[in-house]
Amino acid sequence: MALTTEEVRKIALLARLRLSPEEEATFAGQLGKVVDYIDQLKGREAAEEWLPEAADREVEDRARPCLPRELFLANAPAALDGFLLVPEVKGPDDA
Amino acid sequence: MPELWELSAEETARRVAAGETSAVAVLDAALLRTARVEPLIAAYLELFEETARARAAEIDRKIAAGQAVGPLAGVPVAIKDNMNLAGRRLTCASRILSGYVAPYTATAVERLIDAGAVVIGRANMDEFAMGSSCENSAYQVTRNPWDLAAVPGGSSGGPAAAVAAGSVPLALGSDTGGSIRQPAALCGVVGLKPTYGRVSRYGLVAFASSTDQIGPLARTVRDAAVGLRAIAGPDANDSTCSGRPLDDPLAGIEDGVRGLRIGVASEIENAGLAGDCGRNFRAALELLARAGAEPVSVSIPSLDTAIAVYYVLATSEASANLARFDGVRYGRRSPRAETLADLYLDSRSEGFGAEVKRRIMLGTFALSSGYYEAYYGHARAVLARMRQELAQAFEKADVLATPTAPSAAFRLGEKVGDPLQMYLNDIFTTPASLVGLPAVAVPSGSDSRGLPLSLQIMGKPFAEATVLRAARAFELAAAWEVAPRFRGAESG
User: Fold this and answer.
1) For residue A57, what pLDDT is reported?
2) Which of the following is catalytic: B8, B155, B347, B454?
């Protein structure tokens, strides 16, 4: 199944990626080849889903100390008064 | 007399603890060796010379004071740059983490340090561990010590090259679909991917959480066992880490393979492994048989689906795991974004390299509405089938053997333009990852160009001791002691 550049653009938006027209064209070709390869799985024998041993293990729900706020915020690109700082959520289109 | 940098981790620690040498002397030798080889191979993104010296001196002081030191006392180690070490930069070889400083230490790294190891640097990798050649690093190209025009493999290419070149006897890598074993194979060293759940992933940057696993790379099987023993075991900070105790992998490691049933999938034999790789694999099986192992034929019909299944599941998980890199909480933020939506788009687009974008896109596609059942759901179901087939194979065999990689190291640049060709390198390593089995790559000789080839030995869940015992017997039988040639270097 070949991917069109429109499909690639749609996937990129879902993945929160902005691609240049060149990237769109390159990825359409490359991802198309990979998806073709993956399509060999169609019609292959399958089995019931298996659950790992750990899936049944219950962990006590208990509050524990976590990373101190200042240590966490030390890696933040922008912070103010102990909070993360981001640009306005609404863009001009939402106004 | 071997130089200090040539010693195994085990022998280094023994000498340091016995006072026959000092941790500082060992570190000096390692740093000198590293200064000599690093301009050729570029295995490290950063060396921690100063803190390593302080740490080595501290170990020497403890020994002088008669205090206990761990089983890795004074052993220089390298860690892949996707494991947190408090106060140190961590980039995953990605631009998006260019300014990140680790706020805490990964459990596996902490355990290595507690055992007395001296971390000398963070080693290069494919960006976010996505790749089989180390060429996807945003920072530098690491070269194979055997041939400087060849790739070291990936994604743990930096750790593998560092170990092969004699910079360190032991390194930590991570393996999601072969990222410890394939570079170990291409660099002629030993690489162990433990059972899923054997080693804590706390502090490891997640790629595909259903298969990610930390493990050792070393020049000997015994050192890989020493490394595993140091890092394995339950961890309250990782609920996916098993509570099972580790049988000491060194206890029976010299017991040989007499009577051990070594399974070979008929699908591999029928595929007619071509050229040097096939010849080498058959010779390896013969060596094991001569050492007393009992070869048995098994059938794993779904083996040829492993790469397709892996690239659906791993990319799906990656698309979710890497959603956290959005320019808000940590990492690089695009300076040009004026709204939050643009901030996500621009930070991610500027921060991620091409392969990471490809895999995020592939995973997003496989999970997207209308395709989820056909791709993600179906891949899970085919995997369930593979799991059954492998369980049946392990009723007839104690371990399974395959080549680790379909060929020796390829040339730098040879496969960068064709992602699918790059993915096909993972044919033999992905099954153990998908099913969570322990698997070790052990050098098995060289191809016609003199580049290393490798045998993979897979075991039942949590049977690391068996896998390592078989690998040790093979290592003795194969007697691989050839040192890398640094072919292509201007000066020897």
Assistant:
1) 64
2) B155
CA proximity to B278, closest of B415, B144, B467, B408: B408
**Token pair listed for B410:** 């390829």
Tell me whether A51 touches chain B (CB under 8 Å). no
pTM: 0.96
Selecting from A11, A48, A87 the residue whose C-beta is nearest the C-beta of B338 gives A87
The answer to whether the Cβ–Cβ distance between B352 and A74 falls below 8 Å is no
Neighbours of B143 (CB within 10 A): 25
| pLDDT at res. A88 | 85
Chain A residue numbers with beta carbons less than 8 Å from the beta carbon of B327 are: 77
Does residue A82 have a pLDDT over 80?
yes
pLDDT of residue B491: 47
In this prediction, residue B492 carries a pLDDT of 42
Question: B85 Cβ partners below 8 Å, 6+ apart?
Answer: B79, B102, B105, B106, B109, B119, B122
Q: Residue B99 and residue B331: Cα distance in Å, rounded?
A: 6
Catalytic residue flag (residue B80): yes
CB within 8 Å of chain A, chain B residues 230-249: 239-240, 242
- The residue count for chain B: 492
pLDDT along chain B (492 residues), means of 10: 95 97 98 98 98 98 96 98 98 96 97 98 98 97 98 98 98 98 98 98 97 98 98 93 92 97 90 84 97 97 95 98 96 92 96 98 96 95 96 98 96 93 93 98 96 98 97 95 82 44
Compute the C-alpha angle B54/B58/B63, nearest 5°: 150
Q: How many residue pairs from chains A and B have C-beta atoms closer than 8 A? A: 157
Answer whether B170's CB lies under 8 Å from B77's CB. yes
Q: Tell me whether B343 touches chain A (CB under 8 Å).
A: yes
ipTM of the complex as predicted: 0.92
| Contact across the interface for A91 and B331, Cβ inside 8 Å | no
According to the model, what pLDDT value does residue B269 have?
76
In chain A, what residues touch B365 (CB-CB under 8 Å)?
Answer: 11, 31, 35
